[in-house]
Amino acid sequence: MVKAAGAKGAARTSVWLAGKERRGGRGGGQPSGLDRDRITEATVRLLDAEGLARFSMRRLAAELNVTAMSVYWYVDTKDDLLELALDAAYAEFPLPEPDADTDWREQLRGLAAAYRAQLVRHPWLSPLAGRYLNIGPNHLAFSQTVQRVIRRAGLPAHRVTSAISAVFQFVYGYGTIEGQFLSRIADSGLSPDDYYGQAMRSALEHEPAADFLRQSKEIMDARGGATVAEMLDRDFTFALDLLIAGIEAMVARG
Asked: Which end of the chain lies in a sparser environment, N or C, as judged by fewer CB atoms within 10 Å?
């Protein structure tokens, strides 16, 4: 049994659990023509525009041009809204049919690339990962698809979750850092390539960093990539290939 949020020693409850699922407002009313879908869409839009730190129920109500109490007819807490927004983000990319003839490796690459893009597109997602039970319909559909794709690789059942962790925790880390990097660039008003150029020139003025960069020049030159986007894509693709090769090796080992 899940205890109420806020109780000492209790696990955080979920907006998807019985008693908190979709409803038409407390007492059955529908003030201001709101519904959960409209509130969730506005929450995602506001988080994208202003970030997690600035998000509040009052700010959301202003975005919807209603009172904060009107929003509370449909959700109990700010955490409910964030959990709804988190699940809504997982509806943004199509899921492959894991039992199709397409190779599992290509399907896994597609899922990993979609998750990376999602983390970059919505930087507020990363701090929320692991904060909720993640039992919303879209997240469950994503998780079930990932599990079915990985199982097609031929790993024994007790290794499936480890393989999923290896791939998607890597993607989480890569997408989180990339999203933060691109957000910082956006704040500077520079293009990614101009920002990178300025950052490298500044680093060369710091002797310990400059020494490291000189030692790394051969590696950096060999990596290639004329733009920041190309460098990021190349590193991500090869790192993901390494993980897939590791899964193949473990399957072959039996």
From this structure: N
Structure tokens at 230: 């190309």
Q: What is the pLDDT of residues 219-235, one digit of tens each?
A: 888 877 789 999 999 99
Is the Cβ–Cβ distance between 63 and 46 less than 8 Å?
A: yes
pLDDT of residue 216 exceeding 90 = no
Assigned CATH class of 26-89 = mainly alpha
Helices and strands (H, E) in the chain, number of each type: 11, 0
What 8-state DSSP symbol labels residue 154?
Answer: T
Closest CA to 120 of 240, 232, 239: 232
Pick from 116, 193, 137: nearest CA to 21:
137
The domains of the chain are located at: 26-89, 104-189+224-253
Query: Burial level of 96, CB count in 10 A (0-12/13-18/19+)?
Result: middle
- The closest alpha carbon to 57, from 43, 70, 73, 68, belongs to 68
**142 close to 90: Cβ distance less than 8 angstroms:** yes
- The model's pLDDT over 12-39, given as tens digits with 9 standing for 90+, comes to 689 998 666 555 555 445 556 789 999 9
With tokens 């894509």, the residue in question is: 233
Architecture of the domain whose range is 104-189+224-253: Orthogonal Bundle (1.10)
Angle between helices 160-188 and 228-253 (to 10 degrees): 170
Q: What pTM was estimated for this model as a whole?
A: 0.87
